[in-house]
């Protein structure tokens, strides 16, 4: 079922009125000898945004934080946040600002001032202008933390949450069940509120686009139309190798963009046979003599490194994400795959394009993703294995109900005129980036014939479908290299 998080903007007036009292944090500055507040009720309405009845300048003031956590929409606008002192300062009251958090300045927000909040002598208010930026890609929620401190060593933290716009795909289920028949065309009264009645899967072609959140017009629903977007509530676009968008009926495409989540997926290529042949640089044997040339591996289509039948052991050298075990890789004769002409980097389970590269290369999930990034597949350089939930987001569970061979949308993900995602190889298991918490030598993998999740040993050689997304709060596209040594091949 599709859902998204969208948090409302709290204006400065609401913040000050709704977040006072116990939700505020005080910062005191100056020296001793401040004015003692009066306990007499005021008879005149105050025009100053002050909590003090005295207008006499003071050498001891207190800064009030208007609510420790404030929520903001991600929009291209600037919101002024007024901060108030309890008394009029007799000096320039300065509070340094240390900015941290997951939000990126210039990308998610901008702020003025950036280093110091100053209350001029004689003024109890100072304004912080916070601008949030809307992104062209769906993003998760990010935090902006400001630690205010003064020369007296007192401090407090203000946290802003810049809301996310991370939308999730629906399940694809468009049929109903009464627990006996699992492919009913309408919802039975005995079992109301089923998934097929809600979310993106309920495609509405009658309402205007502006009013219908789950809308597809006729062209977007017809697989024979160049503007087709996919089954049920899914919305996909084909991309060429350079990342250019293609019509849905394009015959040659390299990637698939999910218009709902913003993720981009690679498309697997057809079967690429791996064969062995004698060393082409060695002198062939004389007639009648045995052939003692070394045997090397080659692929039938040397540039097709993303062939659907190629498999890879699981490898992640980032200690922050590998669950405690980096995994494994497969090479050639105890070392990296051969990478000099006339030899192709290949062994019995995978093969890469024969091209100049600065790094050694092996058959592993990490090497495969790095190769795609170095080649700039579809214009991106941050390819990686999908997490469990990322991979699950493109599963169309209606396919299982319909008896299809695999759980992905064949029109966009499969090889042209072929069920290659789950054919032509011994395994239909695809790796995820999610390591097992209890068994660090294993990682999670999906069986694409039925969508089932299971544990697979990192030593196993399984298939790979990589993903990229411009959202570092959800996906670490640039992990810090681990100090853990790479395992021997």
Strand order, sheet with most strands: 1-2-4-8-6
Low-confidence stretches: 1-53, 471-489
Spatial gap, N to C terminus = 43 Å
Number of beta strands = 20
- What percentage of amino acids are in beta strands? 15-25%
What is the H/E order? Answer: HEEEEEEEEEEHEEEEEEHHHHEEEE
- Rg over C-alpha atoms, rounded to the nearest angstrom: 30 Å
How many DSSP H or I helices?
A: 6
Helix residue percentage: under 10%
Fold blueprint:
Elements: H1 12-18, E1 26-30, E2 60-64, E3 69-72, E4 77-85, E5 93-100, E6 109-112, E7 116-119, E8 125-132, E9 142-149, E10 155-162, H2 218-221, E11 236-239, E12 245-246, E13 255-258, E14 264-266, E15 274-278, E16 295-299, H3 365-375, H4 388-392, H5 398-401, H6 410-413, E17 429-435, E18 442-447, E19 452-457, E20 467-468
Parallel strand pairs: 3-10
Antiparallel strand pairs: 1-2, 2-4, 4-8, 5-7, 5-9, 6-8, 9-10, 11-12, 11-13, 13-14, 14-20, 15-16, 17-18, 18-19
């Amino acid at each position: 079922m599709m859902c998204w998080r969208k948090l409302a903007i709290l204006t400065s007036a609401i913040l000050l009125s709704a977040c006072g009292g116990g939700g505020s944090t005080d910062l005191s500055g100056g020296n001793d000898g401040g004015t003692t507040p009066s306990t007499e009720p005021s008879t005149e309405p105050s025009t100053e945004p002050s909590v003090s009845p005295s207008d006499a300048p003071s050498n001891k003031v207190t800064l009030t934080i208007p609510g420790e956590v404030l929520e903001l929409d991600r929009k291209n606008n600037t919101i002024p946040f007024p901060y108030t002192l309890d008394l009029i300062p007799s000096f320039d009251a300065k509070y340094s600002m240390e900015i941290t958090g997951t939000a990126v300045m210039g990308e998610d927000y901008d702020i003025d001032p950036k280093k110091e909040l100053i209350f001029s002598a004689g003024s109890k208010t100072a304004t912080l202008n916070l601008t949030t930026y809307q992104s062209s890609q769906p993003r998760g929620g990010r935090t902006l933390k400001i630690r205010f401190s003064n020369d007296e060593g007192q401090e407090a933290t203000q946290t802003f949450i810049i809301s996310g716009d991370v939308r999730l795909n629906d399940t694809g289920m468009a049929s109903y069940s009464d627990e006996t028949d699992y492919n009913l065309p309408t919802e039975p009264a005995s079992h109301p509120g089923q998934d097929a009645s809600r979310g993106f899967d309920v495609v509405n072609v009658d309402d205007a686009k502006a009013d219908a959140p789950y809308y597809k017009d006729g062209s977007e629903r017809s697989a024979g139309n160049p503007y087709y977007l996919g089954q049920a509530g899914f919305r996909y676009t084909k991309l060429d190798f350079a990342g250019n968008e293609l019509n849905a009926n394009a015959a040659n495409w390299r990637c698939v963009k999910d218009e709902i989540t913003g993720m981009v997926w690679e498309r697997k290529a057809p079967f690429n046979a791996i064969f062995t042949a004698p060393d082409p640089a060695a002198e062939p044997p004389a007639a009648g003599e045995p052939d003692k040339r070394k045997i090397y591996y080659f692929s039938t289509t040397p540039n097709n490194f993303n062939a659907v039948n190629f498999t890879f052991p699981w490898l992640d050298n980032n200690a922050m994400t590998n669950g405690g075990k980096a995994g494994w890789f497969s090479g050639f004769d105890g070392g990296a795959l051969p990478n000099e002409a006339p030899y192709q980097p290949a062994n019995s389970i995978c093969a890469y394009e024969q091209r100049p590269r600065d790094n050694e290369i092996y058959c592993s999930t990490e090497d495969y993703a790095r190769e795609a990034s170095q080649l700039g597949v579809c214009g991106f350089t941050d390819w990686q294995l999908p997490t469990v939930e990322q991979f699950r987001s493109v599963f169309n569970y209606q396919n299982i109900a319909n008896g299809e061979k695999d759980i992905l949308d064949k029109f966009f993900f499969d090889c042209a005129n072929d069920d290659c995602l789950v054919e032509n190889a011994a395994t239909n298991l695809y790796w995820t980036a999610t390591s097992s918490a209890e068994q660090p030598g294993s990682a999670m993998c999906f069986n694409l014939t039925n969508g089932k999740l299971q544990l697979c040993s990192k030593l196993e050689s399984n298939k790979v479908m990589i993903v990229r997304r411009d959202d570092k709060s959800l996906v670490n596209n640039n992990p810090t290299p681990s100090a853990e040594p790479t395992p021997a091949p």
